[in-house]
Amino acid sequence: MSFLKPEDVLKNRNNLSSQEADILNKINEKVAGAESFDAIMDFIFDSTKDIFPCDRIAVAFLEDNDRRVITRAVRTKYNDLHLGNCYSAGLANSTLFEVLQNRHLRIINDLECYLEFKPNSAATSLIIQEGIRSSLTCPLIVEDRPVGFLFRNSTRPNAYGEHEVLLHVLMAERLSQAVEKAWRISQLRAANAAYMEMLAFASHELKSPLASISMECEMLLEGYIDGLNEAMAASIKRIKSKVQTLLESTDDFLTLARYEGGRLQVEVIEEVDILAHSVFPALENVASLAAARNIKICIEPQEGIEPIRCDPRAFRIIFTNLIGNAIKYGIDGGEVKVSLSKDSQSFKACVWNNGPGFPPDEQVKLFKRFSRLYVPEYRKVKGSGVGLYIVWQLIDMHNGTINARSEYGKWAEFYLSIPQ
Question: Omega of the bond prior to 301 within 30 degrees of 0, cis?
């Protein structure tokens, strides 16, 4: 085993063949345009395995405050893999610790001999079982910060000399930042997918018991159990109101999880009666909320409009959110107007309420995920912060647009347009 300083190796960087220089240039291009961490790893292995000994490459990243290293990608010429993805080991008392601390290169040209020197090295024992006999390791450095290691291995002993080390260092230079960035992006995507899966599971598990609680509250309020005094009834109404808020949030989160997971699709149908199939069902969904605040809902025109082209289920969600928000953010005893119109080119709808509305500088927060307006009058209004985001996505899937306007302190309206 030996260690080399990268700066000493790089003194010979002009001693490259035209083929080697061409491959390094291609690596630069590929790394810059790669769509994923896996794509980078595939290209590096396939393009370099023939210019110097390479039966296996791997990338490992530092974790747990640089105290542990975890393998995150492996490419081999063979299938009998013993040291694979997600293998982890502490750096204490390892020769990798010296690679990390001094930023040196490590060359092991006889792994069987090295195992005699380091008999407790589980990683060495595993990789020998794969038939590997030589190992070349260098740190991956990003902005003067070590982030991991690039390993190259051969089934031949004594496979790596100074020229092979030079090539390995030059590749690591080109790979470090792109590999770490691509890996972090893939991790973020995986974390987001896991988060959405958890969100959907939790929302689904909550929905049934919440619905049962709401139903039992309704039964109590309707007199199915005797002895309910005025104070008890008021308390049950408050419980039911809070449960209803939670039910609305679980519906929003379930819809969001479906969208983020690619499972929320629109199925456009010709000749949809928008009142019968979307607006009226939405009104049923928010009827108890409107009754609790004594808010009147007006539909214009009451006789409806000509059939439109849309996904009625999607518009049921859209109108439930828009009308529900108009009620929640309106005033007690107020009014909500739902206006519909259609011409040869588009279907248009507007949901208006008299209430606090919103100031112009808060409008930019609308239709964004988990975003809520900072308006003093709304401090006590509960919400998930995803309803309008879902509405925007569903309308966008119809190639439509939605916007909002308000005269702060007086009214607000949300208006949408869908091409026909």
Answer: yes
